[in-house]
TrEMBL record:
This is NAD(P)-dependent dehydrogenase, short-chain alcohol dehydrogenase family. It comes from Streptosporangium canum. One of its GO terms (molecular function) is oxidoreductase activity, acting on the CH-OH group of donors, NAD or NADP as acceptor. Belongs to the short-chain dehydrogenases/reductases (SDR) family. PANTHER family: NAD(P)-BINDING PROTEIN (PTHR42760:SF122), SHORT-CHAIN DEHYDROGENASES/REDUCTASES FAMILY MEMBER (PTHR42760). InterPro entries: NAD(P)-bd_dom_sf, Sc_DH/Rdtase_CS, SDR_fam. The keyword Cell division does not apply. CDD domains: SDR_c. SUPFAM superfamilies: NAD(P)-binding Rossmann-fold domains (SSF51735). Keywords: Oxidoreductase. The keyword Oxidoreductase applies. GO terms for biological process: fatty acid biosynthetic process.
């Protein structure tokens, strides 16, 4: 409990569309278990109820704030509520994201493209815009942005989604360089094929679930708790000398290039 005692953390997307453990919910719970007072942010009150219950069951403190993090005024209000309630901001977890529209550069809907980038990327800049001055005031802080394996490699069917998640990678690095002198660390987590409420609420078939599990070297299924543990590590003092990194939490998905023997040239094996 002592690692984040006295700290205040904001977790955007700290609720979930369905019951169960999503990335934001897990992050909020783990931060609270480690002593932080957590501001849970979501666009709908009902999405945050289970997160509140889980934190309360573990003896933690939290505050739920409804807001749309793609809007500057809402972002300012979220940070203001945190400061009015607990006097400071130490940790910001930028977790909000949407799948975005399907399509390539040839056929993607332009309005949906703009909306995807605003929710997935601009929201992180906006929340940081208002949180960073509060972190400076207490001598530093930690920002953790949620990217994706789709932001590290190509092949995703949605150009908008993979572009947005890739932009988060350099947003993270650029912010780390800009705000390191203020004692503010900025890192990112890049989840792979997690099995979370946002996934199964959209009707993922059991066959596709199994394909996702087998796609990465570890051949195991990831959950929101795996992401929550990575967020906790990057938010807390154990990572005090780490900034500007992108940590894949993906069972090795981004480490493996699927190239059968017949498709490559290899040196002859010694006899």
């Amino acid at each position: 409990m002592e690692e984040l005692d006295g700290k205040v953390a904001i977790v955007t997307g700290g609720g979930s569309l369905a019951a169960g453990i999503g990335n934001g919910r897990a992050a909020a719970v783990r931060l609270a278990e480690s002593g932080a007072r957590v501001v849970i942010v979501d666009i709908a009150d009902r999405n945050m109820a289970e997160t509140q219950e889980l934190i309360a069951e573990r003896g933690g403190e939290c505050l739920s704030v409804r807001g749309d993090v793609s809007l500057p005024d809402d972002c300012a209000a979220i940070v203001r509520r945190a400061v009015e309630t607990w006097g400071r901001v130490d940790v910001l977890v930028n977790n909000v994201g949407v799948a975005g529209p399907p399509g390539t550069a040839v056929d993607v809907d332009l309005d949906a493209w703009d909306a995807c980038l605003r929710v997935n990327v601009t929201s992180m800049m906006l929340m940081s815009r208002f949180a960073i001055p509060r972190m400076r005031a207490v001598g530093g802080g930690s920002i953790v942005n949620l990217s994706s394996a789709a932001g590290l490699i190509g092949g995703h069917p949605s150009l908008a989604y993979s572009t947005a998640k890739g932009a988060i990678v350099n947003l993270t690095r650029s912010m780390a360089a800009a705000h390191g002198p203020d004692g503010i660390r900025v890192n990112a987590v890049a989840p792979g094929y997690m099995y979370t409420p946002n996934v199964y609420a959209q009707g993922l078939s059991e066959d596709d679930r199994e394909r996702r599990r087998l796609a990465a070297p570890l051949r195991t299924e990831g959950t929101g708790w795996d992401v929550g543990e990575a967020v906790l590590f990057l938010a807390g003092g154990r990572s005090r000398w780490i900034t500007g990194v992108v940590l894949p939490v993906d069972a090795g998905l981004t480490s493996a290039l699927a190239v059968p023997d017949s498709m490559t040239v290899q040196s002859p094996r010694p006899h």
